[in-house]
Design a protein that fits this description.
By secondary structure, the protein is of the alpha+beta class. The protein has a domain of 74 residues. The chain has four helices and nine strands, in the order ββαβββαβββααβ. The strands form three sheets. A four-stranded antiparallel β-sheet has the order 3-4-5-9. The longest helix is centred in the N-terminal third of the chain and has 13 residues. It is globular, with a radius of gyration of 15 Å.
Length: 168
């Protein structure tokens, strides 16, 4: 059973300015953790509804369980995160932001802006390669999954920005 289901997360979700519908609205969102695979959302639509609820309530973090955190990236993307010591340290030190067309992490005490890979390296994680896709994040065993309008093809660097109009 999923941690979040469509029955539990109701309401509408925000759509990008370009409009349309998600390509894969019924695709489940799973997170590969150190203990196995966790079903976090029963569908992409449920994840998008939660992201909209988080925006409406000015919420940036959501504890899905004691092992899974949901982190909003400027209410444009979600990071589904295993609550490991390193990941908790990462999000206590950095604030994720969507800048231009990519996910960046801004240090809470210093005025530096880093990629996710560089921020993880600062936390002491040894990474051999850079990553952009969910497959690359899973292979690097980060315990992090990116969820946005394009899931399961969500990436950290979009190429073309996902643009939302939250004033409407």
């Amino acid at each position: 059973m999923s941690l979040f289901t469509s029955a539990r997360v109701t309401g509408s979700y925000d759509a990008p300015v370009a409009g349309g519908t998600p390509a894969n609205p019924t695709t489940a969102v799973n997170l590969t953790t150190s203990e196995g695979v966790v079903s976090v959302f029963d569908s992409l639509e449920t994840a998008l509804r939660l992201m909209a609820q988080m925006r409406r309530h000015s919420q940036w973090y959501c504890h899905a369980s004691e092992d899974v955190l949901i982190v909003s990236v400027s209410h444009v993307k979600l990071l589904v995160v295993e609550a490991t010591f390193v990941n908790q340290k990462l999000f206590n030190s950095f604030v994720p932001m969507y800048v231009g067309d990519r996910v960046r992490l801004t240090h809470r005490n210093l005025s530096c802006n880093k990629s996710l890979e560089d921020a993880l390296r600062e936390m002491g994680v040894c990474l051999e390669t850079a990553f952009n896709t969910n497959d690359e994040l899973r292979l690097a065993e980060t315990g992090i999954q990116v969820v946005d309008w394009n899931y399961p093809n969500s990436v950290l660097h979009d190429g073309t920005p996902l643009t939302y109009d939250f004033t409407a």
